[in-house]
Amino acid sequence: MGRRSWRYVTRKIKMNELKKILFESYGGFADKRIKSIAKSNRFIIDDRSDSDVGSNGKLYSYFCMIFAEVKSNQHIAITLLGNVPEDAKVESWLKKNDCEIKTPSHQSRLEIDVKLGEQSKLDDLAVALKSIVSPDAPRYEISNYKYVCPRTSKALNRFSAILSEAWSKELSSKPEGFFY
């Protein structure tokens, strides 16, 4: 096995620091069994709580799950899964950001790539989602949007703020940051 370059190690350090910020903000990885920063990169960012789980131990079917996967220090992939709200403003946002909501099975799925400096598009999506249930909006047909839209919007705003703060800091290149 060859030696890894310092550039590789430095990139890994920075990614670990970004993951550490997200780990602390969201109380761990999506897989709660993993505690080592170096071993995972997927986070649950939908702010779910015990009240979102039914008696069968599963999330309610109307819930919109949101995951973030750290691809690199400057690139994160966001996935909205389940009950992804849709309307004209969301469709407009999708076109503007070259995204689409896919429904390969019974769950809709929206994948969003966010790179350094692009986190404001999450705020724009949050505004579009919240506008679905605003008092002056046309009547929406899916009654659970009353709960789903504001929660999803709030979770996206929170994640955008965390990213903005994390990306505004200069992540160090200390070698000890690699060994979490």
Strand content: 15-25%
Query: Low-confidence segments, ≥5 residues, pLDDT <50?
Result: 5-13, 172-180
Question: What is the domain total for the residues?
Answer: 1
The averaged pLDDT comes out at 85
Question: How do the strands of the widest beta sheet line up side by side?
Answer: 1-2-3-5-4
The DSSP helix count reads 4
Compressed to H and E, one letter per element, the order equals HEEEHEEHH
Report on the architecture of this protein.
This protein has helices at residues 6-26, 88-96, 120-132, 145-168, and strands at residues 42-44, 64-72, 75-82, 101-102, 108-115. By secondary structure, it is of the alpha+beta class. It has one domain (6-48, 57-170). A five-stranded antiparallel beta sheet has the order 1-2-3-5-4. A hairpin with a 5-residue loop joins β4 (101-102) and β5. α3 packs antiparallel against α4. Residues 5-13 and 172-180 have low confidence and may be disordered.
